[in-house]
Specification:
Elements lengths: L1 H13 L3 H12 L14 E3 L5 E4 L5 E3 L13 H13 L6 H8 L3 H19 L7 E9 L14 E10 L2 E9 L5 H11 L5 E5 L13 E5 L6 H4 L1 H17 L8 H12 L8 H11 L5 H4 L2
Parallel strand pairs: 4-7, 7-8
Antiparallel strand pairs: 1-2, 2-3, 4-5, 5-6
The structure holds zinc ion.
Zinc ion (ZN) binds next to loops.
């Protein structure tokens, strides 16, 4: 919590006006100074809307937000930046409802901002493979609400993989699957790991093909009372992810679960560089191509 408060305090100190945000974006977009995308000229004039600039040579007009995640947004950048500080530093993330109330945005706008940020986070980590000793387990998310005993058929299965260095968690990856079965487990592990790693699982049959696809494999009968000893990293990741989903996103639609889990993994995987996570995500927003609504429909 302290980390988040410090980050929010620092944010309000650094970014007080729309212009502060525009300057920060310009520095990220043109780190060596303005460069006209049409003619390469380095001199420009700011137009009335300070987001827009005009090349002094060819008169081409461009904007600090063009071609970025903020492309053509009508929402003030100050509100975007605040969403970025919250989603990057609050372990519980932030819901669209909370963001819409805090920033005076329509719910749909807050939802779109957060989903675009989640998609950028997901794309950043897509394709990264795990190595070393990797703990793998399946978990079930969503389903019936508290007070009603939901069965697994109401829930969405997820294969969870995390690097484990003698119980210290490394990189985490979570993949939503249609069924937690042998074929899906094999596919997710094959895609998610470098070749010839070492996988630890419980003795569920869905992991029976791990050694067939070239990994070392230790499967141990794991009862709940020894789960933290046998598979400490994957259990920790699952329980933190469940807390995150319950606390912030209890009304989640299963189709969007993967994006939310990616958001969780993005923060988890950068937990050792927390003070810089806002900068990293802001930089990612500038280097990410525009994301359109159809890209977000699950
Ligand atoms: Zn030009």
């Amino acid at each position: 919590m302290k980390q988040k408060q410090a980050a929010v305090f620092d944010f309000h100190r650094r970014f007080q006006t729309e212009n502060d945000c525009i300057e920060a974006l310009a520095k990220l977009k043109w780190p060596k100074g303005f460069k006209c995308p049409r003619c390469g000229h380095s001199k420009s004039y700011s137009l009335d809307d300070r987001r827009e600039v005009e090349c002094a040579k060819c008169k081409h007009q461009t904007s600090v937000t063009a071609g970025t995640l903020f492309h053509k947004t009508r929402t003030p950048l100050l509100k975007w930046f605040y969403a970025i500080v919250l989603i990057s530093t609050d372990k519980g993330g932030v819901s669209a409802l909370r963001l819409s109330k805090q920033l005076g945005l329509r719910y749909a706008t807050a939802w779109l901002i957060l989903h675009k940020l989640r998609k950028a986070m997901a794309d950043r980590d897509a394709g990264r493979t795990l190595c070393g000793v990797v703990e793998v387990d399946d978990a079930y998310f969503g389903g019936r609400r508290k007070g009603k005993q939901g069965s697994r058929k109401d829930k969405v299965p997820v294969i969870v993989m995390v690097e484990s260095d003698e119980g210290h968690c490394g990189y985490l990856s979570m993949v939503v699957v249609e069924h937690a079965d042998l074929d899906n487990a094999e596919r997710v592990i094959e895609n998610g790991l470098e070749p010839n790693q070492f996988v630890r699982t419980d003795n569920s049959k869905i992991y029976n093909s791990v050694s067939k696809i070239g990994h070392g494999h230790k499967n141990t009968p794991v009862t709940p009372d020894i789960a933290d000893e046998e598979l400490p990293c994957v259990n920790k990741a699952i329980s933190l992810a469940k807390r995150f989903m319950l606390g912030t996103h209890h009304m989640l639609r299963p189709a969007h679960l993967q994006l939310f889990l990616n958001e969780f993994c993005y923060r988890f995987n950068r937990r050792h560089s927390e003070p810089k996570i806002f900068e990293k995500l802001l930089h990612l927003c500038v280097s990410t191509s525009p994301i359109l609504l159809p890209d977000l429909r699950g």
